[in-house]
Amino acid sequence: MTELGSAGTPLVAASGVTKRHGATLALNDAGIVIERGQTHALVGRNGAGKSTLVSILTGLNRADAGELRFDGTPPPPISDREGWQRLVACVYQKSTIIPSLSVAENLFLNRQSASGPISWRSMRRKAADLLEAYELDVDPKQLAEDLTVEQRQLVEIARALSLGARFVILDEPTAQLEGKAIERLFTRMRALRESGVTFLFISHHLQEVFDACDVVTVFRDAQHVLTEPVKDITPPQLVEAMTGEAAGESVGNNRPPTSADADVVLAARGLSLPGEYTDVDLTVQAGEVVGVAGVGGSGKVALAETLVGLRAATAGTVEIAGKARKAGSVPAALAAGLGFVPQDRHRQGLVPLLSVAENATMTITDRLGGGGFISPQRRRAVARAAIADLAIKTDGPDQPVSGLSGGNAQKVVLARALANKPKALVLISPTVGVDVRSRESLLEAVDEAAGRGTGVLVVSDEIEDLRVCDRVVVLFHGAVHAELAAGWSDRQLVAAMEGVDET
Amino acid sequence: MSTRGSGVNQQTPTVSNPELTTGPAVSTARGVPRFARLRDFTLIPVIIVLCVVGYLVDPIFLTSGNIINVLQQQTELSLLVLAEAVILISGKFDLSLESTIGLAPALAMVLIIPKNANGIGTDWPMWTAIPVCLAIGALIGAFNGFMILKFRLSAFIVTLGMLITLRGVQNGVTGGNSLSQVPAAYLYLGSANWAGVPLSIWICAVLFVIGIVLLGYFRHGRSVYAIGGNVDAAKAAGIRTDRVIWTVLIIGGVLAAFAGILLTGRLGADQASQGQNMIFTVFAASVIGGISLDGGKGTLFGALCGVLTLGLINNVLTLAHVSGNWLNAINGVIILAALVLSRITSGKAQD
Fold it and tell me: What is the pLDDT of residue B158?
């Protein structure tokens, strides 16, 4: 482990930590040293042991072996939640906000009053003061379920700090945030670091590590690989450390240009949905990959959801394979030859307890047998082909999807979308929460589908996702703002997304 | 991290926010009533409409005698709803309440009454009637909790099994007979009047007020909502979730046993079928009253309104001389209508 040479005892020092989950070794003699006042990044592919380390650092799990020190002293027993809360706070990917309670009560959960009855008014006032101190424009009386993801995270951070913790773990805080919100989060993190808060920052976005962190630690295969100051490392080195091999060529556009007379497989004609987008025209030809970019609130997700039938537009038509079809109907869209990957794979993409095979063939059950009968053999055969095609890491077609890592689960969703050999494919944020390698194989699969003549629409915030596209349509405030041909620069794209005109 | 080991149980002061370091909640601030949420009042118009309709059907409806009668008939149900509402808010289920309401007083009675009155011959002293009955309720709740929390079983199935088991035990112990030698204490609680109003109504009112205050204004009460809303978040906040759920289930059992005392005292006997099928009404009242079956949502005030609504509906139907054979059908339709109504007024999907 690299010594960083800071004076004094480190704020957090874990060494030799080993943790088993059943047969799998989640952490194998791993460790991390975090100095006071650092913003320390922790990166690694899915399954590298990051989440397990977080659960041990926050006292939710006990390590099988190893030593943990906070400021040189051993941590309190696992049962002493209050003791842990004063040491370390964590904003998990999974929200620890209780949606049915007010913001004020969430902030003071289980400490609504020191003793005796709760005074709601004084609690709300304290909550308002706390929110004001952290410059959060949130009404303490409002229900937490009405908060945006960004507000929710900031409320969690404010709560953590108000408990006295000066060490905050942020577990993929940016995964669900849009660009502006991420910047605001970083600004806040910098301000808090000035006031002495130490961060452990977990992200799949390597650029964020370079933007926001001082030191980076890489985990791979349940072990610590390296800890380096961010300024001494380059992105390719980081990718190499994460994957154990030199970074491959980034997936580019390897397809021949689409011929101008290829059939239009997916088209939006004058689509409008009040509050989301107005008068959008868009076409995707067979074999073409079209990107749709835009910041949060640009209407890009709503547009994509309209194309696949999850929403119905109030004006205009959606054409799939050259024919207008019923608005707001997913079955009609599927029947017309459309496949799609929904935005939230956990909520809309997968049935976690069902097997890989069942999930992957959910759209084509009619083709697995006659008269409603589903042939398990045929299903398994189809699933095996998909597993091989997309390089899904699984025990086999019968493994429940809940046991897969994020990247592999997303591949199953893609397999489901591709199962009916769609003429048009719509992908909404296909690589959110997916590690570098899985992202590459997902994008390769998209590339191959396009090569077979499928028209693909990729709706994403990720520059890497948009890089594979033949052209990128940029939405701004619900209208098409710009269209960029392949070969655009990052700066051009970002400028267009922010509504800035560049010439 | 300098506060570590200081042993102080207070939060560390936040530099930028001295307000946080002020001591206990200022007691002079009078809180806005917790139940003053719109959702809780959606049944008030329904209740008013029912009163108007009742009056039009038969002016007797609005006499104090009739109202007291309606309320008294709802006392036992309201206690079960009180118990079930708290359990539902904590995110659990208890179907066995309807068997506890019959079994707990029955067991307490057979221990006391002589063999020739269907006792079992133990001839326990009369004073044990109430404590033993409540203790049995607590034991049943504790056993439910044991099965649900220690074996991680579904509360629905555990308490369904208990519903059947407990009913069977009552039949077995009493030989299917009605116990009519009811202890004086039961008779007093179930039928005495205080200031012209049945004691059981006073008791229910007091218990609901206690429940509303506990759930609205105390940490442990709020933790019930936190657990039902997001059990992982509650754990992360340091709430001892299992302990709270266990307590809630035990309180539920005790309340059901107490409802059994009131019912036995009011009717003057404990039949082998006492409480049978009541659980459906309990759930209907709870859900109409805005308690979510998914946990974390609803208030006791709302649940109480749900009980009153059902009671008034029944009374109006009786006064309208609706044939007894049709009562259930009409009752069911009205429950469905009330659900639709509260769904529309609250504007949110039913949980």
Answer: 96
Q: Rg of chain B's alpha carbons, rounded to an integer?
A: 22
Average pLDDT rounded to a whole number, residues A14-33: 85
Residue in A55, A73, A82, A86 to test binding to B, most B beta-carbons within 10 Å: A86
Please identify which residue in the block is written with the tokens 């370079």: A210
| Each residue's pLDDT tens digit, B91-114 | 999 999 999 999 999 999 999 999
Beta strands at A315-320 and A264-273: parallel, antiparallel or unpaired:
antiparallel
Rounded CA gap, B40 and B212, in Å? 13
Give chain A's radius of gyration (CA, Å).
24
Give the closest residue to A444 by CA, choosing from A429, A432, A430. A430
- CA end-to-end distance (rounded Å), chain A: 49
Mean per-residue pLDDT, A447-466: 88
**CA–CA separation, A237 and A234 (whole Å):** 5
Q: What is the pTM of this model?
A: 0.74
Q: Are B209 and B145 in contact (CB under 8 A)?
A: no
Question: Can you list the positions of beta strands (E) in A80-138?
Answer: 89-91
* Region class of B58: left (phi > 0), else alpha (psi between -120 and 50), else beta: beta
Whether A173 contacts A91, CB under 8 Å: yes
Interchain contact A194–B (C-beta under 8 A): no
CA distance B286 to A83: 38
Task: Report phi then psi at A290, rounded to 5.
Answer: -115, 130
Residues 47-86 of A with CB under 8 A from B: 60, 70-71, 73, 81-82, 85-86
pLDDT tens, residue by residue, A358-369? 888 888 887 777
Angle at A183 between CA A182 and CA A187, to 5 degrees: 120
Instruction: Please determine, for the modelled complex, whether the ipTM score is greater than 0.95.
Output: no
Q: Which of A110, A171, A192 to mutate to test the interface with B (most CBs of B within 10 A)?
A: A110
Q: Do B29 and A122 touch (CB under 8 A)?
A: yes
Which B positions 193-252 lie with beta carbon below 8 A of chain A? 213, 216-219, 222-223, 225-226, 228-230, 232-239
E-state strands within chain B? 193-194, 197-198
For residue B292, the chain A residue with the least C-alpha distance is: A100
A142 Cβ under 8 Å from any chain B Cβ: no
Closest in B24, B34, B232 to A114, CB measured? B24
Scan residues 289-308 of B and list those with Cβ closer than 8 Å to A: 292, 296-297
Cα–Cα distance measured from residue A18 to residue A16, given in angstroms and rounded to the nearest whole number: 6
Angle at which helix B184-191 crosses helix B129-145, to 10 degrees, equals: 80
Bridge partner residues of A314 (DSSP): none
DSSP B2: T
Instruction: Please report, as a single letter, which amino acid is at residue B107.
Output: L
Chain A residue with CA closest to B27: the answer is: A119
Quick check: B40 pLDDT over 70?
no
> Which own/partner contact pairs does B342-350 have at CB distance under 8 Å and 24+ positions apart?
B342/B42, B342/B43, B342/B288, B342/B290, B345/B42, B346/B38, B346/B39, B346/B42, B346/B290, B350/B287
Neighbour-count burial for B34-55, b at 16+ CB within 10 Å, e otherwise: bbebebbebbeebeeebeeebe
Tell me the pLDDT of chain A averaged across its residues.
84
Could you tell me the pLDDT band of residue A7, with boundaries at 50, 70 and 90? Answer: low
Cβ of B16 within 8 Å of Cβ of A115? The answer is: no
Q: Which of B346, B338, B347, B339 is nearest to B49 (CA)?
A: B338
Q: What are phi and psi of A103, to 5 degrees?
A: -60, -45
Say if residue B23's pLDDT is above 60. no
Instruction: Please tell me the number of Cα atoms within 13 Å of B184 on its side-chain side.
Output: 3
User: Smallest Cα–Cα separation from B12: which of A266, A59, A231, A195?
Assistant: A195
* pLDDT higher than threshold 80 for residue A131: yes
